[in-house]
Amino acid sequence: MVIYIIIGFIGNFIIKCFNFNYSLNNMLAISPPPLFSSIGWPLEESISHNQNQNHFFKDTSDQLFHFHHQLDPENTSTDPSQATSNDLSMVKKLVHNASERDRRKKINNLYSSLRSLLPLSDQMKKLSIPLTISRVLKYIPELQKHVEGLMKRKEEILFKLSPKVDHDVKNHGYNSGFVVSSCRLNDSEVSIQISCYSTVHNVPLSEILLYLENDGFLLLNVSSSETFGGRVFYNLHYQVDKTKRLESDILNEKLLSIMEK
């Protein structure tokens, strides 16, 4: 009886061991493989592989650190607002440079035009800008004197070419210090010259202009000049109707009567 009990106990123990081994095998089958082996050479290979892997991670970490340092916002700006500000600054700089270039071009063109007004002898010298301005300042008074001389010469020629007045009227004019002459330039224009000595008489020019205006004369231009002898010449340029008959003698006498009042 005791033997049967011992045999049964041993059988149960064997069955339990078999079940435990079966359960353990199932657990190992579904468990992940171990990262490191603890038996023989595989352990050394794992250690060597681990060291190489650690070295790889270290190098990769250093490279990533340097790459991140290069992409640091302090070194490379990726802010859209700052990029836009840089673009605007560049555009303003380009616009300013273009405007400055156009301004200098216009100034050079103006100086070239001014230089072209000088005498040919000065143009051939290729004067600089300061010398050009200095020469122009001297040349303007020369031109003014030349123009005044030409105007006097013109009035003297017109006075000599104007029709002769009657002998009595001319003598009366010279005796009183006034000389008046008029001539028709064309069908619609009349020139009237008045001469007197400035040291002796003052010409009532306003009364003369008013009289001629009331008589149908339209004033176009008035000029005056004085000779070295103190004689003053007034040149009156008028427009008249083509159908108006100009009586030079009558007009001269009327103007002389106004001046001798």
Key structural traits:
four-stranded antiparallel sheet; Alpha-Beta Plaits; 8 helices; 261 residues; alpha+beta
In words, what does this structure look like?
This protein is an alpha+beta fold. Among the domains are: 114-161; 164-259, Alpha-Beta Plaits. The protein contains eight helices and four strands, in the order ααααααββαββα. The protein has helices at residues 2-30, 41-70, 80-116, 120-123, 129-161, 167-176, 205-214, 248-259, and strands at residues 178-184, 189-197, 218-226, 231-239. A four-stranded antiparallel sheet has the order 1-2-4-3, sandwiched between helices. Strand 3 (218-226) and strand 4 form a beta hairpin. It is elongated and about 180 Å long. Residues 34-61, 63-76 and 164-176 have low confidence and may be disordered.
Could you give the topology of this structure?
Elements: H1 2-30, H2 41-70, H3 80-116, H4 120-123, H5 129-161, H6 167-176, E1 178-184, E2 189-197, H7 205-214, E3 218-226, E4 231-239, H8 248-259
Antiparallel strand pairs: 1-2, 2-4, 3-4
Summarize this structure briefly.
This protein is an alpha+beta fold and 261 residues long.
